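for the writeup, i need someone to sanity check this before i put it in the appendix. the sequnce is what the collaborator sent (i think, or maybe the updated version? ugh). structure was predicted straight from it, no edits. if anything looks off just tell me and ill rerun, i have time this weekend
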Amino acid sequence: MHEVAGEWKEVSELSVVIQPISFHRDDSNLGMADYEDDIRRVGDALGALMPNLRQLHFGGERGGPVATAICSHLAGFYTEQLQVLRSQYPITIPSGCRFKCLKKANMSYEYLSGHRPPSMDVADLETLYLYNTPPNHSWAPFGTNDGSSNIIEFAKLRHLRVGYHTNYEENGIVVPHRDGHPWKLCFPNLQIMNIRCTEGICPLLEYMVLPPHMKEITIEMKLEDFQRYAEISLPVADKIALKVHPFSTGDPTGLAAINRMLSGAQGSNNVELVIMHSGVSVLPSSITSPTLTRLLVGGPASVDTMFELIQRLPNLVGLIFHALDMDNVQTDVSVPEPGDHAPMEPYGTKLTGMAINYKEDKHSPDLAAAIAKHLLLKIPTLTKFFAYQTPVQPVLDFAETYS
């Protein structure tokens, strides 16, 4: 390496790919102390070869403690100058050290959960991804330790993505400050926020201060956890998406909390609700937000519920049902004969795309075809329509007759 050291000095970006150990070695009697000198030597040598590094990426397969320690030591070499840091492995730098000028940080701990992000200044941070970091301690590394303030201001942050893993069960005060008060997390210029929390506690939602307008907000949680944050005020955003995690308990009362959260989204013209949990039963009264533009229902819902939601949610442009129940359909799905002088009044909806599927039990092909015909006739705005478990030819013949 030393023969080409001059060329290495120009390197500004380095990717380190960790490969799994493919051979057996009995090192059960060796501790990390046995490797400390080698780790320091390798890290210092690489750092000296590439003094102008600005971007550092650590990835690959699951690595052992030695490999991750080398990553930490190498990253620690560049705390004063690194602008981009992306790592699938925990980065541990000496106490008192901080990354001073990061613009992009991606701490997605794919294999080793429960580790805090490294300490860093946030003045220049523009993009931040955190995944698998413990909810109660994800934000402490971004604050100051001098006790001067309990506010962390991410002045330049534009894109924030946070994912809390299901293995954590931490309670008590979230992200305590020195005097016991929680941090306030201020994002005056945030444009895109994506939160995926399956844990029940989400410090970001509890203590965030957002700008009045954003481009995109996505929040995914268990249905029962939406109740905890039902009273938060979401800013106006070009797109708001709320997603019910598949591991929810199925308690439909959580949908009332979602309705309350969306009640403040009056200025948003793209509002999406995704209920991925197949055990959540949806009733006409379950979803009331008139701002909804897209709705996906993964759990059971009656055919009558579908028709009522179409009429009660006038701004819908996209609608998907995965498990419609054909039992006891009360809606009249008959259609007039061609040439009838009394055309059917269309639904007052903006729907342009729709997909429906049925529960396997008690399925009636004839009823499925009748429902499809009724929808096509009553929703003339449809440009995309998928009807699964529905006879194709009768629907095609109907569409040709009425075209």
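The mean pLDDT is 83. The first strand starts at residue 13 and ends at 18.
thx in advance!!
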